[in-house]
Write a structure and sequence with these properties.
Elements (H helix, E strand, L loop, with lengths): L3 E4 L2 H9 L12 H4 L4 E8 L5 E11 L6 E5 L12 H14 L2 E6 L4 E6 H9 L13 E2 L1 H13 L2 E2 L14 E6 L5 H6 L3 H12 L3 E5 L4 H15 L6 H16 L7 E8 L2 E11 L2 E9 L8 H15 L4 E6 L11 H8 L4 E5 L3 E4 L2 H13 L1
Parallel strand pairs: 4-5, 13-14
Antiparallel strand pairs: 1-2, 2-3, 3-4, 5-16, 6-7, 6-15, 8-16, 9-14, 9-15, 10-11, 11-12, 12-13
């Protein structure tokens, strides 16, 4: 099929995303406004009749003192990844980005390779011979994903290194998801492990109340988030980042009469906010985006309570998946991310491995220089 590619308007881009069952929240036009330190562009693929058949949000980051850019499509573009003529989709994109001054292109195909259900992961954790997810036989495999990887390699794309949970600008290769479609809340909670169900009941008996917050509650969120950052030793994003995210994402959906794209949930105990989370929504896909909690009152289990409320709300809105986002792939207690996967496995969902991020060097010298710079950070 002969495809053409061009810059499209935000309105065209959003209309196309809205026509799909779901897409990554990093591929909606407003995400370019969230990432204010990048320049953004909406790309559209058209078939011979002129119909829009694909879209992608590109973020451009300029090299210091040089008018050359890294072009990044996080969890995108939104195209037919299983097309046998995949090059006819990606070649026009590379040509366009090169004309825009890109020296390298990074993208994250939203293609799942493997899935492991909670039962398989739990068995793997108990097996001393298992150290990583890939040591366990997958519950489900997607053969077409391997074909996509082969096509990308033949085109000259290079697979990025596996970064585990991949927090930061590089997106996670491994995520944890709870399937919701066609399941009742009773069925979903039945798959929770005993500890999760006990903690939810404990939060209820202790009087933990989970409520929806608004824009004016973001400073309260930020206080808890910075406490969490200090406890877990990561660099927190500033308040203005979450304020910008709230305004831009929710303005986008408000303009077309849809519910908020971003939500804030607060867990309150005896009048005090002790945990908070953010949720993102695109079509039938709901993400738990960020989480925070106080150092005290952890015994009343506010984090379990707020997650359960978010799952119930996602189910009520007809979502087909609740996405707990990144996990590490290590299944040994000595790994610093082991507690994360242990917490999420308790929900009875499944781990999913995506194809990972891929790079195409348009200028090999500058691409290599960027690799060296990033490895030294």
């Amino acid at each position: 099929m002969s495809l053409s590619l061009s810059t499209i308007s935000r309105e065209q881009h959003l209309e196309y995303i809205r026509s799909l069952p779901s897409a990554s929240h990093m591929q909606v036009p407003a995400w370019g406004d969230v990432k204010a330190e990048w320049r953004s562009e909406s790309l559209g693929w058209h078939d011979p009749s002129g119909r829009l058949v694909g879209a992608g949000l590109v973020l451009y980051r300029q090299l210091p003192r040089v008018k050359r850019y890294l072009a990044y499509l996080p969890e995108g573009p939104v195209i037919d990844w299983y097309a046998t003529d995949l090059e006819s989709w990606l070649r026009p994109m590379l040509d366009h980005l090169k004309k825009q001054g890109a020296f390298s292109v990074k993208m994250g195909p939203p293609v799942v390779i493997r899935r492991w259900d909670a039962r398989a992961i739990k068995a793997g954790i108990q097996d001393p011979g298992v150290r990583r997810l890939r040591d366990i036989e997958a519950t489900a495999l997607e053969p077409r994903a391997f074909e996509v990887a082969d096509r990308l390699r033949r085109m000259g794309w290079q697979q990025g290194e596996d970064g585990g949970a991949g927090f930061g600008d590089v997106q996670p290769r491994y995520v944890f998801q709870i399937p919701l479609k066609g399941r009742s809340l009773e069925e979903i909670q039945k798959d929770f492990n005993q500890l999760w169900r006990r903690n939810i009941k404990k939060a209820e008996k202790s009087g933990v109340e989970v409520v929806r917050g608004g824009y004016d509650d973001l400073p309260v969120w930020q206080q808890l988030y910075e406490v969490t950052a200090e406890r877990d030793r990561f660099r927190p994003r500033p308040l203005m980042y979450f304020q910008r995210m709230w305004k831009t994402l929710n303005a986008e959906t408000a303009a077309v009469g849809e519910p908020d794209r971003m939500r804030l949930y607060l867990a309150r105990h005896e009048g005090e906010i002790i945990a908070a989370t953010t949720m993102l929504i695109v079509g039938g896909h709901v993400w738990y985006s960020y989480g925070a909690s106080a150092n005290h009152k952890r015994e009343v289990r506010p984090s379990n309570a707020v997650q359960w409320q978010m799952i119930k709300d996602a189910h009520a809105m007809g979502a087909h998946v609740y996405d707990l986002r990144g996990i590490g792939d290590a299944l040994v207690e000595t790994d610093h991310l082991f507690g994360l996967i242990q917490f999420k496995v308790g929900t009875g969902g499944e781990a999913a491995e995506y194809l990972g991020e891929w790079d195409f060097p348009l200028n090999k010298l500058l691409h290599k220089a960027l690799d060296i710079y990033m490895s030294r950070r």
